[in-house]
Design brief:
This protein has about 425 residues and is of the alpha+beta class. It has 3 domains: about 80 residues, RNA polymerase II/Efflux pump adaptor protein, barrel-sandwich hybrid domain (OB fold (Dihydrolipoamide Acetyltransferase, E2P), Beta Barrel), CATH 2.40.50.100; about 35 residues, Irregular (Dihydrolipoamide Transferase), CATH 4.10.320; about 200 residues, Chloramphenicol Acetyltransferase, CATH 3.30.559. Helix 5 crosses helix 6 and helix 5 crosses helix 7. The relative contact order is 0.12.
Length: about 425
């Protein structure tokens, strides 16, 4: 019997995913654990692998479709083998040619105003993904009115977007138009030719790009952003790295400046716990765990995998985690849980040559550290001119939680830790 390929559970809070692309096509041979498709959620793009070796017999869900966890996506087996076991297969397609008694009612706009008829009765489970919840909140959608096509009547992102497209607009009352007086016809001036549109290409939004856009706009609307910038001498860190990177390589870790930045940030967060906090209407929530997110550039944009309980790791452990998370982020092997739960974030924009920046806070965190390019610059030390590896470090912080003095206190501690590394 052919083996089912199902939408995997990619995280505790993930209940649906979008087929980004099929890496194999029907009739292709696949090896066990070989990647066969890419799946997008509102957090990450990850690869799904084959659990058995064989031939990809049938693809049930095409690229671009969003389906619930557990949905059968395809079958793998031997050539000529029968597909399916008689059980119904969940697909993202609309119900085909349903009878009037069983077809779900769809609201259609009326020229006389919105219909007051109640929606068709259905079993709504109340379980929705975070992206569906955000869309519903932003557009003031009553989810009881949205027909769900997911498993057990669950509302998917596709369902709520379809509902928004067909939701009737509030009617407007037209002002009475006075009857025009007859006037003799006059020749109309020739209409100027419409300017030709410049050639352009529309790039469709991926789930990750759309999620980044929503998250950044919401962050700017949520927190009053303020940024403070410090100039840091990396001479001590550079000397320590040069002396120890060969030993770290033998232990299976590439010792980068990022590992030092994470280690120093952890100590600074411990010394200034207010920076490791979240704003709530009831008060400021001080986080006991230190979970540091490190931004990684990927072709689709930027993703922030999180080092959980980072304060329990030494420099070698942090270097290994930074290497592992960055590599798996670029290879689309992260799980959604690995980009959640951060309490503070670091973005090293200097790798692209940027000197300093004002990053946007990764909500609901209090702040984000921006790291500029480390380069040799002239510096005055004890009234003497010296050349040192320098970098601008910026802290963008939530002004509801931190003031200038407390933010600068954190940065002063971070600067001291890096400049006196031993």
């Amino acid at each position: 019997m052919a083996t089912k390929v199902v939408m995997p559970q990619l995280g505790e809070s993930v209940i649906e995913g979008t087929i980004a692309t099929w890496l194999k096509q029907e009739g292709d041979k696949v090896a066990k654990y070989e990647p066969i498709l890419e799946i997008e959620t509102d957090k990450v793009t990850t690869e799904a692998t084959a659990e058995v070796a064989g031939t990809l017999l049938k693809i049930l869900v095409p690229a671009g479709q969003t389906v619930s966890v557990g949905t059968v996506l395809a079958y793998i087996g031997e050539p000529g083998e029968a597909v399916g076991d008689g059980a119904p297969v969940t697909t993202p397609a609309e119900p085909a040619a349903a009878s009037p008694a069983t077809a779900p009612a769809r609201k259609t706009p009326s020229t006389n105003g919105p219909s007051t008829a109640p929606p068709a009765a259905r079993q709504y489970t109340g379980r929705i993904s975070p992206v569906v919840g955000r869309i519903a909140e932003e557009h003031n959608v009553n989810l009881d009115l949205v027909p769900g096509t997911g498993r057990d009547g669950r509302i998917t992102k596709k369902d709520i977007l379809a509902y928004l497209e067909q939701r009737p607009q509030e009617p407007t009352i037209a002002e009475p138009t006075p009857t025009p007086l007859p006037v003799p016809p006059s020749p109309l001036p020739p209409r100027p030719p419409a300017p030709s549109a410049a050639p352009a290409e529309l790039l469709p939004l991926t789930n990750i790009r759309r999620a980044i856009a929503e998250h950044m706009v919401r962050s700017k609307h949520t927190s009053p952003h303020v940024t403070t910038v410090f100039d840091v001498d990396f001479s001590a860190v550079a000397a320590h790295r040069e002396a120890h990177k060969a030993a770290f390589t033998r232990d299976g870790a590439n010792l980068t400046f990022t590992a030092y930045l994470v280690a120093a940030t952890i100590q600074a967060l411990k010394a200034h716990p207010l920076v490791n906090s979240t704003w709530t209407d009831e008060g400021i929530l001080l986080r006991k765990e230190v979970n540091v997110g490190v931004a990684v550039a990927i072709p689709d944009g930027l993703i922030v995998p999180v080092i959980k309980n980072a304060d329990s790791l030494n420099l070698l452990g942090l270097a290994r985690m930074v290497n592992d998370l960055a590599e798996r982020a670029r290879n689309k092997q992260l799980k959604p849980d690995e980009v959640q739960g951060g309490t503070f974030s670091i973005t090293n924009h200097g790798v692209s040559g940027s000197l300093f920046a004002t990053p946007i806070i990764n909500q609901p965190q209090c702040g984000i550290l921006g790291v500029g390019k480390i380069e040799k610059r002239v510096k005055v030390i004890n009234d003497a001119i010296a050349i040192r590896p320098m970098a601008y470090l910026s802290l963008t912080f939530d002004h509801r939680i931190l003031d200038g003095a407390s933010a600068d206190g954190f940065m002063s501690t971070l600067k001291e830790l890096l400049e006196e590394w031993h």
